[in-house]
Design goal:
With 154 residues, the chain is an alpha+beta fold. The protein contains one helix and nine strands, in the order H-E-E-E-E-E-E-E-E-E. A hairpin with a 4-residue loop joins strand 5 (88-94) and strand 6 (99-105). It has a single domain (39-152), classed as Tick-borne Encephalitis virus Glycoprotein, domain 1 (Sandwich). The chain has one helix at 2-26, and strands at 39-40, 47-50, 54-57, 62-70, 88-94, 99-105, 116-119, 122-130, 145-152. The strands form two sheets. It has a five-stranded mixed sheet with strand order 1-3-4-5-6, with no helix packed on it. Strands 2-9-8-7 form a four-stranded antiparallel sheet, with no helix packed on it. It is globular and about 45 Å long.
Length: 154
């Protein structure tokens, strides 16, 4: 009789532990802020974001990362070019509700890319990308910094 009660107790304890573990695995979180962010930013205030930097606004529970800079065809200083060129950047914005991938471009007249966008209830605008290319001086990915501004979309 004692053996049967011990088996039932062990079985019941196993079911409870599995239930708690299952509930934790399926629990959806609304927190996107982690301890691994590079710095904090304030809404409506421009800030510089380097490649792979993670900037977060703790009050709004949002984070943004610039994960790549590509296709930098801007005309280097000291070179005579037919076209001024442009650069494309890819960002990931994470809110408490969703994650968004967005692309910004230094050339606001582009039909495909823009220097601002609205996603997840926020207006993200690219003010500038530095450094500007120099003749015979390639830019390392780690040297890029995009000055962006994030504000609430009205």
């Amino acid at each position: 009789m004692v053996k049967v009660q011990l088996h039932r107790a062990a079985f019941l304890l196993t079911v409870i532990i599995c239930g708690v573990m299952f509930a934790q695995c399926n629990r959806k979180t609304t927190e996107v802020i982690a301890e691994d962010y590079s710095f904090k930013f304030e809404l409506s205030t421009p800030f510089a974001l380097g490649v792979t930097d993670k900037a977060c606004n703790l009050d709004q529970n949002i984070c943004i990362v610039m994960d790549s800079v590509y296709d930098d065809s801007r005309c280097p200083e000291g070179v005579n070019c037919i076209w001024e060129g442009n650069t494309k950047m890819r960002f990931k914005l994470t809110t408490s509700k969703n994650s968004y991938v967005l692309y910004l471009d230094t050339q606001p007249t582009s039909n495909i890319y823009h220097n601002d966008t609205i996603v997840g209830g926020y207006h993200i605008s690219l003010n500038q990308l530095s450094p500007y290319p120099l003749e015979d001086n390639p830019i390392k990915l780690s040297d890029y910094a995009a000055e962006i501004q994030i504000s609430a979309a009205n």
